[in-house]
Design a protein that fits this description.
Layout: H1 5-43, H2 48-81, H3 90-102, E1 105-106, E2 109-110, H4 122-137
Length: about 140
């Protein structure tokens, strides 16, 4: 039997690196976007808010790709490593919590009556508000 603890540790470190990368990317993009919006208001340049919006859109794509990579690694850990070892259950527990938090149920059946604005992530709301600001300033 192959000891999977090294693989598990390596994959967990990769997950942490992705999460740190995502946080750094978001912080940088939000800072630069805020600076562009501030410069646009100060210099009355209608193009700067559009650059900020483009930067935030590209950042959203990068964050979505990072999130996809994190979910792929987490699924691999959950299915291939944690299933055989009861001591390792970080991703399995995290997966169960995520599923319960996003799946409203009624009598054990998932209910989605309409598309709720609450399904959008906070970054989606931020991008939406930045697009409104960019349009108003342009």
């Amino acid at each position: 039997m192959v000891d999977k603890s090294h693989e598990y540790d390596s994959l967990r470190q990769e997950l942490l690196a992705y999460q740190n990368s995502r946080n750094a990317t978001l912080s940088l993009a939000l800072t630069v976007s805020a600076a562009l919006l501030g410069a646009s208001a100060q210099f009355s340049n209608p193009l700067l808010p559009l650059f900020a919006l483009l930067l935030l859109f590209l950042t959203r794509i990068q964050v979505a790709q990072t999130h996809s990579a994190v979910q792929r690694i987490a699924a691999y850990i959950r299915i291939m490593i944690e299933q055989d070892n009861e001591e390792l259950n970080w991703e399995t527990g995290s997966y169960q919590i995520r599923r319960e938090s996003i799946a409203p149920t009624r009598d054990g059946i998932q209910v989605v009556s309409r598309i709720s604005p609450m399904l959008l992530l906070p970054i989606d709301w931020f991008l939406f508000s930045c697009s409104i600001v960019a349009i108003v300033l342009a």
